[in-house]
Amino acid sequence: MDLGKKVVNRVSFPALTKEKVLQLIDWLEKEKTLMEKEKQTFVRVDVLALNYKRIKAKNFYYVDFRVRNESLKYIERKYNPFVIRENKIFKVNYTLGTCVRCESITDFTLIFEEDPELDSTKEYIMETVPPVEIVNRQIRILKEILLGQHPALKLILFGTHQPVQYKDVIESISPKLNSFQKEAAKRAIGAEDFHLILGPPGTGKTTIISELCERFAANGERVLLTSWMNVAIDNALMSVLKREKLDEKLICRIGAGDFKVTEDILSLTLTGTLIRSEIQRKKIVGSTLASAYKAVIDSNDLFDVVIVDEAGAATVSQTLLALVLGKKFILIGDHRQLPPVVSDENCSDWVRESLFEKLWRMYPQKCNMLHEQYRMAPQISDIVSDMIYHDLGGIKTSESVKSRSTPFESVKVTKNLDPYERKLINKAPICWVDSSGSMKWINFSNSHSAKNDHEVENIDKLLEVLVEDAKIDPKTIGVLSPFRYQISTMVKALERFIEKGVSINTIHSFQGNEKDIIIISIVAKQSDDSRIFDDVRLLNVALTRAKFKLMIVSDVNIIKGNDKTSEIMSKLFKSARENDAYVAKDKLNISQNEEIRKDTINDLKIADTQKFLVKEKNKLKFYRKH
């Protein structure tokens, strides 16, 4: 399938070779060099809330932070960004904390195992603590594979493995699973070596995981459940607990979940000496990929099964952190969503590809796909199915979704809205607000990003109608954009809505989340304005976050290209027009935001000055050499 201009036939030979392993090691060494530069970065933060929970004589401290306004220019923006992301470690007041929640680019939660002794009336400096130790572990595993360790895994990775026949499964599978889920569960249980499950958005990956954990444990097998995301692990463990089929004493979590979202997981948490003394008694152990090594005491203590969730978004070496700890593995993910995040823009496409995608193409007989989704309105799902998953059999919408009520059926507006404002809150699942703004680029060195001030002003109006007039719960609304610069601009301009609970984030950071209403700021006028639209996986993630309503804010010219992105946008536009949910340019009574427009002018001046200084510096180097 053509997933975009730049990804057609980009990797002809997915199997590893000695040369490719050495290439991965070289790339990881470069990553370590980049991490050294990260040590010099920081932002200023305010403390919003302090909480702690005592579990098994151990206190966990949860702190909600917000980035101060003067530090916003460093967050996910322009050049040299300070990136706040789940699982990253930061230092605040000389104490290390791990990010366990990051729905917004400004608001996030850190968990500390030691009291950080913070005062909610003071501001603090937060520094990045690069995960050099984790990268070193990845390098060590790759070198072990080259030296002949992990022989079974090496055969699979190098494409020389002869897949073992599936054993017959006599266990009864939950009747609550649909036919696709049942088939995937049976094959995963019956696999003697490994199995892959592709789960498009909303198709019930968590349901599959909880079923597998339950069945493996019933067979006396121990399971290591991992992901690069804390929230994915906690959601899966919560699903297992809710089924009430497994004794809670047989389940544990290494690390901890979010105080606000998964409080019940805390009672399962093991830390310090508790890990070594109790972990061998557990049947289900949940951990991030980075912490998975703590679950195995020695090489003779391997898990029977390793399950990796969100495997399509983890690099090869990240995934191997968990796979070397088990006798067989199950990868669950979706390579038609975003690939792994790789900071080095110059590394090869092969390095950027997940192990899930490589094995999907190397061993098609070892794969299953879930085809029934329970999240999106049918109109959204049908477009995604036709444009992204059609060559894999497509996805269909569950009847339960088709018959559910929407938040817009009970809307009671507090004032008289004009006909165009009413288009924003009708029952149509796809809305399009045509924007006439111009795209402004910030370029510096190899880094660049863009913004569109007029789209920000349109989104301000959308949120005003949704939150203030229609009384839609702001916590059910997410605002996304593919451009970091646009996000930081919206964070500043839409602060009053963020205070009420609206999430504003990059598409990359929102994978794995969902909201009732998703607003997407496209920024560009045409799909060829930026390479970011070359790969439609980004667009796939953005569209599939919405449960009830998808609102596109974009110049309608973006539908006029000949590429995949334009074709998808054209289908969205057509749906909005057919359902009276298209708002033509300048039909909303929006107000200009003079502050962000002045910021744009200042930012462009700063970027031009920086480019001039770099040029002069390079000239000086040239003359010194000659």
UniProtKB/TrEMBL annotation:
Record-level Gene Ontology MF annotations: 5'-3' DNA helicase activity; ATP binding; hydrolase activity
Gene3D superfamilies (UniProt xref): P-loop containing nucleotide triphosphate hydrolases (3.40.50.300)
InterPro entries: Coronavir_polyprotein_1ab, DNA2/NAM7-like_C, DNA2/NAM7_AAA_11, P-loop_NTPase, SF1_C_Upf1
Recorded superkingdom: Archaea
Keywords: ATP-binding, Helicase, Hydrolase, Nucleotide-binding
Stretches assigned to the DNA2/NAM7 helicase helicase domain: 176-271, 273-342
Domain DNA2/NAM7 helicase-like C-terminal: 352-555
SUPFAM superfamilies, per the entry: P-loop containing nucleoside triphosphate hydrolases
Protein name (database record): DNA helicase
Species annotation: Methanosarcina mazei LYC
Lineage start: Archaea, Methanobacteriati, Methanobacteriota, Stenosarchaea group, Methanomicrobia
